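Morning. Coffee machine broken again, so started the prediction first thing and wrote up yesterday's gels while waiting. Chain of 129 residues, entered below exactly as on the submission form.
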Amino acid sequence: MSIESELYSKIKNDSAVAGITTRIYPVQIPAKTSLPAIRYMRLSTERFSTMGEDAGIAGATYQIDCWAETQTQAIDLRDKVRIAIQRWRDGTSTPVIQDTFIEAERDMGWEDDLKAYRTSVDALVWAEE
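Came back before lunch.
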């Protein structure tokens, strides 16, 4: 599995998030998707090398966007996603998730293309490779 698939499962299986939506998509929300919905995408990955070998861990930054019909709903969904993944660790997953840090939260306002409000949270997920 990948960090993306583990992140998807973590968000999808969180009861507070699932109480609002189960519509979670990588990179792009399909046209005419009912709201609320979540989109996630990898923004960057950093890896560390030491003299003669790689450290064997990667830090991947993800942007997770929450879309809803009202700003209040979008903020509520973002907060539930943040709580679900903040300081997330999983020694049984593949790859092993060492830790997760919330780096930013944003209120993005109204988006004309989806006719919805968008909020966003950036998370840095450290995992073994």
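The radius of gyration is 15 Å. Going to sketch it on the whiteboard this afternoon.
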